[in-house]
Amino acid sequence: MLMKINSNEIILVSACLAGVNCMWNGESKPCQEVIDLVKQGKAIPVRPEQLGGLRTPRIPQEIQNGTGKDVLGGKCKVVNKNEEDVTKQFIKGAEEALKIAKLVNAKEFIAKSKSPSCGCGLTYDGTFSGKLIKGDGVAVALLRKNGIGIINEKEYQKR
User: Is 81 a domain residue?
Assistant: First the structure.
């Protein structure tokens, strides 16, 4: 469900795309088009992992044996590279991102590819080997389930 952004609509964006240093390694993946949306007041940056209580920088995390949809369904978990379970923080962060989306009546989320939270279409497989699998991250799965249109930064740039 991809929508054309109406000039009066607010959308959510992965905070790292807006230039916020919030990725696991304390860096960002700035996307000028997303930064412009935030500067124009058309977008709100969110980082679900931080909303769920994880700090930056943090130990890398991946979904093990499934996707964000599976995490939400209790079928698998999110763990960090030290094998610590961070599933609760990822679910809480996804729920908080959804609350923000509802507060501003956001209809779309520009997601960062491959993230265990904001991954759109592809996420890492849980082995910390760099291998990707088809599926969404936890926050994207919850937003999608609640009718929010999801697009990654590369798709957005092609519009």
Answer: yes
